[in-house]
Design a protein that fits this description.
With 343 residues, the chain is α/β, with parallel strands linked by helices. 49% of the residues lie in helices and 16% in strands.
């Protein structure tokens, strides 16, 4: 299984990116990695990690796309950038099953649309991060920013794609699908939510359980949360901010509580460490871009090696479970979705 990794995307590139790639090939015999970017610098980093194996290939790229670049223009004009070269490899090589990049979100999404293209019947692909929840599992939020302005039919497709992903990757038989709104009552929400609610109630192939408030996003009561990209991004960033606030307040309280507090914290050190690891989004995997013809994972810009490794493993699990084929099947089985895509 060959996976291409943009070695120069992200705040901690290329060292952390390459470190994650090395971890993947060392732990999994059936994974090979193609790194794109400045070949000399990649070689230096491989030497830094003392990597002597033959499961990492380098494809040189002389340019980089930054967050300051206009995404669509960068994809069209920086043809020898590490991201564009990676996308070209993904598009043209049948033996490359997926791509991981921690680079500019806009560039990754624009590049995937322009270079890879949508699955037939998909009106709008969507970015869908997995979030840790209170039940110890994962909740998929779809969309979290790819489609700021959405139509009800898009949200209907997001529900189908999110369900297909959770079934394929997490072996969920009947994922619970909720619609993000400002209240759980059926009549809550704006016009978009009202129309999407009606569509989701009659959509075959999903387990729609109704509206959900943002405060329940991490409750574990829902497996897939459907939203337009604007509201979804606000909910995601608010959750991240709340988690960071709580962790910082715990740290402040311990520091200010004197010797007893510090002794208590020492006894609970492993508990706090486990909690911090669970809630640290930079240590988890990335967000799949669902609806394009090949597997694309957008890792967080500040990803470290472990997060890149986890993103590679997401591609691995999605490929092993034939997620795209299952997604296509789900779309084809629902006549309403095909009609919606033509609207």
């Amino acid at each position: 299984m060959k996976i291409v990794v943009d070695a120069f995307g992200g705040d901690n590139a290329p060292r952390e990116i390459i470190g994650g790639a090395i971890t993947a090939v060392n732990l999994h015999e059936d994974i090979e990695i193609i790194l794109t970017g400045d070949a000399d610098r990649i070689e230096d980093e491989l030497n830094y990690f003392n990597y002597k194996g033959d499961k990492i290939q380098i494809v040189h790229a002389s340019e980089m796309i930054t967050n300051d670049d206009v995404p669509t223009s960068a994809i069209k004009n920086k043809k020898d950038s590490s991201l564009v070269v990676a996308l070209d490899l993904l598009k043209t090589r049948d033996d490359v099953c997926g791509l991981v990049s921690a680079g500019s979100t806009g560039a990754v999404l624009a590049g995937a649309l322009l270079k890879i293209g949508r699955i037939k019947g998909v009106a709008r692909p969507a970015l869908a991060p997995e979030l840790p929840n209170a039940k110890g599992g994962k909740t998929l939020l779809i969309d979290c920013g790819a489609n700021v302005d959405s139509k009800p039919q898009y949200l209907q497709q997001f529900a189908l794609m999110g369900s297909a992903y959770m079934k394929a990757v997490h072996n969920m038989e009947n994922p619970r699908v909720a619609l993000l709104s400002n209240g759980v009552e059926d009549k809550k929400g704006n016009e978009l939510v009202h129309e999407a609610f009606a569509l989701l109630k009659q959509t075959e192939g999903i387990n729609f359980v109704g509206n959900m408030e943002a405060r329940d996003l991490l409750s574990g009561e829902y497996d897939v949360v459907v939203s337009d990209g604007f509201a979804g991004n606000v909910a995601l960033k608010s959750s991240e901010g709340a988690v960071q606030f709580v962790l910082q307040e715990i740290k402040n309280a311990i520091t200010q509580s004197g010797i007893r507090g510090k002794l208590g914290a020492l006894l609970l050190k492993n508990v706090f460490k486990s909690l911090k690891k669970k809630l640290n989004y930079t240590q988890s995997g990335g967000s799949p871009f669902l609806g394009v013809q090949k597997l694309v994972i957008k890792s967080h810009g500040s990803s470290k090696a472990m997060s890149i490794y986890e993103s590679i493993m997401q591609v691995y699990r999605m490929h092993e479970s034939q997620m795209i084929s299952n997604l296509q099947k789900g779309l084809q089985e629902n006549d309403q979705v095909e009609n919606s895509a033509k609207a």
